[in-house]
Write a structure and sequence with these properties.
60 residues; mainly alpha
Length: 60
């Protein structure tokens, strides 16, 4: 959240949403080893993380 927090109303802007989603995907792909995680596993985790952060941001 510390990286995303400074982004003003990022959930309202499509370009910024895409940047946040790309950042999360990059971090997940770099952090999870292959194997045991498949590319699909990583994509699923990245999507779950993105949705969680988006929901937290919308509630703030």
């Amino acid at each position: 959240m510390a990286v995303i927090a400074p982004l003003d109303r990022w959930t309202e802007k499509e370009q910024t949403q895409a940047e946040v989603e790309t950042f999360i995907m990059d971090q997940v792909y770099l952090s999870l080893p292959e194997p045991p995680y498949t590319p699909q596993d990583k994509a699923d985790v990245a999507q779950l993380v993105y949705q969680h952060i988006r929901q937290k941001s919308l509630r703030a």
